[in-house]
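Consider the following assembly input.
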Amino acid sequence: MSLINSVPEMVLTTKVDAFLNWTRKSSLWYMLFGLACCAIEMMQTGGPRADLDRFGMAPRATPRVSDLMIVAGTLTLKMALRTKVLYEQMPDPKYVLSMGSCASCGGLFQLAYSVCDGVDKIIPVDVYVPGCPPRPEALTEGLLLLQEKMMQEKWLVRSSTPATA
Amino acid sequence: MDTQAIQRKLEAAFGGVVGPVASGRVESWIEVDPDRIDEVAAMLAGDADTRFECLSNLSGVDYPAHGHIQVVYNLISYTHGHELTLKVNADRDSPEVKTLSGVWAAANWLEREVFDLLGVNFVGHPDLRRILLPDDWVGNPLRKDYVEAPDYHGISTIRESMLRIDLPVKD
């Protein structure tokens, strides 16, 4: 008689990795990081209509307790240095979502002297959401994609490359 | 008062410091000596006939062909409902203009912006620092001959864009 057949029916069995990943993806706290007009759509996504709360996501005002940084808006070179510091202040495992054209590639302002064309020049990015700005539906899909990625993480397997990008 | 009347009033008080009324396509303006602009502004703000309470805008323009940087002041009087544009031409190599921050408090940050982007030194300004760009920025980006640094703190500013168009430098 195997172990699985011996436990009561009310007990769920799972893998440790899957359980850890499920807990993490189900309480994804994102740092408020609105840099430009994309922030308005991000607020809209957190509001009652798109309602990120149903995925267990909650906005945080500090990087110290955040799991995810949603870079929403035009990244200037002045802000880029601060962005890197804030990213380093986030505890592992951490993720970055680049929201909108400006954060992904500089967008309309990519040729401006003060603009950093793409947040991936500074920090690693997990999901890019295109749009100018992306609608709340697009951001929601990006976050669901990120959750899918989080479910693929292998925390208990030793590997030469780090689990997070 | 219209611009002509204000110009006559200023000329009576300051003489050659104030130029004649110049007309553009949209508006007319008065050119003023950069070393005496603070006195002219103080009179325009304080005099009962002009009473310009509001400095609605202060901007700068680079004219490399003429060798000067122009600072433009847009004034509004709430009392009389009239407007005025003043222009000042400063030498491009070492632009120096008297500050107006003692006349209108709004001039403080606006002058810092012109200092930041065009490098105009506002003589007598209480706090002349960069306001938009980082403190360690090199150069003044709105100058027409500005060349971008290849990187900023290790962040490359080489932009691999298909959109790049190199426009000729025009006056």
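Residues 3-156 of chain B form a domain with the Beta Polymerase; domain 2 fold (CATH 3.30.460.80). Ask yourself how this observation constrains the way the partners meet.
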